Structures are given as C-alpha cells and as structure tokens.
Amino acid sequence: MVASTFELFKIGVGPSSSHTMGPMSAAANFVARLADQSLLDQVTRVETKLFGSLALTGKGHATDRAILLGLSGQVPENIEPDAADTLVDQIRSGARIKLGGVQDIAFDEEVDVIFDQRKRLDFHSNAMRFTAFKNEEELASRVYYSVGGGAILDQDQIGANDPESGLWDVPHPFCSGNDLLEIAKTKGLCIADIMRNNERVDKSDADISAGIKQIADAMSACIDRGIKSGGILPGGLKVKRRAPLIHARLMERQERALSDPLTVLDWVNLWALAVNEENAAGGKVVTAPTNGAAGIVPSVLRFYERFSPKADVAGVEKFILTAAAIGSLFKENASISGAEVGCQGEVGVACSMAAAGLTAAWGGTPLQVENAAEIGMEHNLGLTCDPVAGLVQVPCIERNAVGAVKAIEAARLAIMGDGTHRVSLDEVIETMRKTGLDMSERYKETSQGGLAVNLVEC
User: Fold this and answer.
1) How many CB atoms lie within 10 A of CB 229?
2) pLDDT per position as a tens digit, 35-55
C-alpha cells in the first residue's frame, strides 16, 4: 500500500507523534463518534486507559495532556500550543472538561486517565481504551492504536478481514524499492514523478505544490523558532536549549569559518537541534516521519536550499516527494514507530528519507536515490529507543543532529557511485523489521533499559 506524502508529513505539536498527536486524535475521534451516535449529551464520565509504551512513557511524552486536549475536541493540525496550555490548566484547576467543546462534565484526571503499565495489548504497544459512562452505565467503549507518525487505527480497522480495504487506488502502486526502480525504468520517471502522479488521483498539481510548500514552510518556521527560543526544556531533566547559543557563536565567527570546511556541518547540527528542542517544548513541528525524528528532514532540506548552487523550488518538491516515497516503503513493510521497532524506525527512517530526498534534489538517478536510502538505514540498524525519564530529549535531540549528518554523507556516497551496490533497500528494510522483532521490549520506547536506566543509576 502506498502512503501519501501528506500522510507521512503532517503538521502537529510535540513532543511525540505516537504519544502526543496519536492519542489526541484518538480522543477527539472517540468524542466525535459519541456525538454521531447521539450519545454525547448523555455522558457523565469518560475513562481513558493507556497500555504498553503509552503507559510507560506517556507522562514524559505529554500523553496525559494530549488526552485532555483531544477529549475537548482539539486536533493536532489545528492546535495552537499557547492556547492548548491555557485549556489544559483550566481543565486541571477546575476538575471539569467540555467533551468536544460542548458537553461539560466532572473530570478527575487521577481517576479518569489510567496508566496501566503492566498490560500490553496484542496488536501494538501504543494502545488506549476510551469508555464513556452515563452515571455507572457504560454507554460506549473503543480501543485505538497509535501506530507511528501520528496515525491511528481503531479496533474495527485492526479486525478488518478484507486485505484490500482502504487501499489508495493510484496509477503507480508500489510495495518495494524494486517496484519503484522498475516503474522508474519502464515509465521513464524519477521517483518524485511517480509520487506526484499518485498524488494527482485526488489533488491538482497546484494543490500538490501548495501542500508541499506548506510542509516546507512549516519545517523552516520550526527551525527559526527553535533558534530564537532559549531556556530550559520542560520535564525535570533541566536540559538547556542550545540552539540560540550555537547560532550566536556561528554568527560571531563567520570570517574564521571560511577556513573551516566543516562549518557547514555546524549549521546542519544547529538546524536539527533547533527543531527537536522546539518539539521537546511542545511546539509546532512536522512529522518527518515522526516527531522524535522531526529534525532530520528539515535540516537536510535547509542544507540543500542554502548550500546547493542550483537549489530551487522544483528541487524542494523533488526532495519532499522522494523522501515520502521512501518513507512509505518503511511504513508499509516495517514500521516508523519507536514503540514497535526502536529508534531505527524513527531516526533511521528519517535519515533514509532525507538521504534519498537530497540525492534526488541533486539530480541523482533512481538507482542512486535507492542506494542513498539504503545507506541511510543500513547504518542505523539496531538503534534503540530508550528516552531518559520518558522525555523526547536525551538522547533524542542530539540523535537528530547526528542523523542529519549521516543523511548528507549517505547522499554524497550515493552520488559518487553509479547506483550499483551489494545490499538493496528492500533487504535493509526487511533486516530492520526483523531486528525490531528481535529487540527486547525494554529498548522500544519504554524507558526500562539502555541509557534511560544507566543514566539514572549514575
């Protein structure tokens, strides 16, 4: 199944696509269903129960806050962070919530939002159950799964028996990197054109370009906000935002930088840190393909725009569309969820997407693009997700900077070759999937192993 560019790149809020945006969307969906079934005005209480990774790291990922906002009818793409803070404070101080913005009920967060850390539902670690009551009578209950990148599935979608249900009917369906290369060869298309032709099923060229511009502009704005915003990140780790200081130092030493060929990488590091510090603070970001890895594609895209002699709007579009095609392969054949396959599914996939996008924007052939994507993931295989204190800060923020530099290196290696290589993208995606299956649960966004445990002990 081919995922749309606009499914992989979504504008939302931090700190996590799977633990913040997904639960918010699920809560809002549940309330909307109550309204559609004419049950909302009967509800006197709503209980939310979180399982697996959502329960173990949810508070650090602001899942509790997201649930309150979603039940109030807020959705990630429309929310304003400052207004959201005010609304959450009102709910908590008043011990009441307006479901969908209309049905006012009593709300005791300690009782009504339950983090069940002992239970994991079978389908996915990011599971949640919403139950609505009229006094003590259960009116409705529904299970949702947050499957990565802000996407959600409900219990009916999991149980669907029709394997073809929900497929996007496109002119160039592809399920593998080999499919992409074959289409490119037989149709004489680049990978970006394959994606654009697929997007044309329900969008005009003007709408596609406008949508890509909106994504690119949101990424750029996030970088700029992160550069300007100082202070300490929320959550208790007392992590200081570094982007403003790094930016000031780079501006101060511009003349000396002329003699340092690696200064370009300092700028890439800055841009990636700026995005992920903004994400950790709950600001507006673009899933790329997730919030935890949201700094890689924007920083590599800005690297292309600022340091490529022939950078133009067409190159930006080619970058985004190509990155989306590669992201679609990982989403459908493996996972982009840290709770399912570890951080290789987040930073690793983002690195692969950015490497492919940059190679395409530089004029690389489909073979070189596939090679760059493979390199980007191959050297992130086995990357664990072990956020300290359940926060998307350590090691997540720096990991994005390193991932961005890896993506540029992967693109440069691919461009210097002719596209032939020993390990295919399909083989590395399957390796990533199997590695995720073999990985202990403690390394899948639970904060029960790795750096999350050892840093605390030290």
Assistant:
1) 16
2) 999 999 999 999 999 999 999
